[in-house]
Amino acid sequence: MNPFPPIPDPQAEGRSYSPDELDNALRRLGEQRYHVHHPFHRLLHAGELTKGQVQAWALNRYCYQAAIPRKDAALIARTDDPELRREWRRRLVDHDGDAPGDGGLARWLKLAEGLDLDVAAVRSQELALPATRFACEAYVRFVAERSLLEAVASSLTELFSPSIISQRVSGMLANYDFVSEATLAYFNARLTQAPRDADWALDYVKQHARTPETQTAAIRALKFKCDVLWAMLDALHHAYVAPGHVPPGAFEPEAA
């Protein structure tokens, strides 16, 4: 039996939620389904992974980091709204930076380097799990092909990221002697960027999702994004925690 409450569905209920009700529905969904609850993340934060397993997480997560500016650029290309373009352009700068070596993507590669990974191999994404690559590409396609409202709503996982970042940084610093504050510097900027971005996106969704149909679409878009992040951790757990399931050609941690 599924222990989680059903997903809110204004369309099935035949009524429009108020902006506050929609806000609450989105937050309840994220609180239930955000990947902070995944067993792999619990192991990561508790210091129960080997260095090789942490390396596998960082290498695979880079695929997601690299997909973010691609999906943001896809959203910008679709809209005639200058305000929306200005907002999303800032996200591109956050990830790509204004110069080589700047931005979140470069900081993630510094994290990989701090974990003794080959940066060129990480950047190539060739050693990532197939499921990781498929999940990330599905997210890019979702933003490029679904409605603008759904594309914006899918970013609302950032409402919940400050809590997972705080847990991740404190847990990893306390439990792994192979990480340092410099290794985890990527997360410092996200503690301010993510809430700023999420607040704007949430306001946009509440302003533009007014009918039962559009509100249900926004809620399901957030569910889709939670599913993307969860699927990536399912793949990591299957490949690197359950022994013997690393697919051919994927990253193989060195023996401890």
TrEMBL record:
The keyword Oxidoreductase applies. Pathway: Cofactor biosynthesis; pyrroloquinoline quinone biosynthesis. It holds the Pfam family TENA_THI-4. InterPro entries: Haem_Oase-like_multi-hlx (IPR016084), PqqC (IPR011845), PqqC-like (IPR039068), Thiaminase-2/PQQC (IPR004305). It is an enzyme of class 1 (oxidoreductase). It catalyses: 6-(2-amino-2-carboxyethyl)-7,8-dioxo-1,2,3,4,7,8-hexahydroquinoline-2,4-dicarboxylate + 3 O2 = pyrroloquinoline quinone + 2 H2O2 + 2 H2O + H(+). Its EC number is 1.3.3.11. It comes from the Bacteria. Keywords: Oxidoreductase, PQQ biosynthesis. The keyword RNA-binding does not apply. Residues 26-234 form the Thiaminase-2/PQQC domain. Ring cyclization and eight-electron oxidation of 3a-(2-amino-2-carboxyethyl)-4,5-dioxo-4,5,6,7,8,9-hexahydroquinoline-7,9-dicarboxylic-acid to PQQ. PANTHER family: 4-AMINOBENZOATE SYNTHASE, PQQC-LIKE PROTEIN. Belongs to the PqqC family. This is Pyrroloquinoline-quinone synthase. It comes from Rhodovibrio sodomensis. The gene is pqqC.
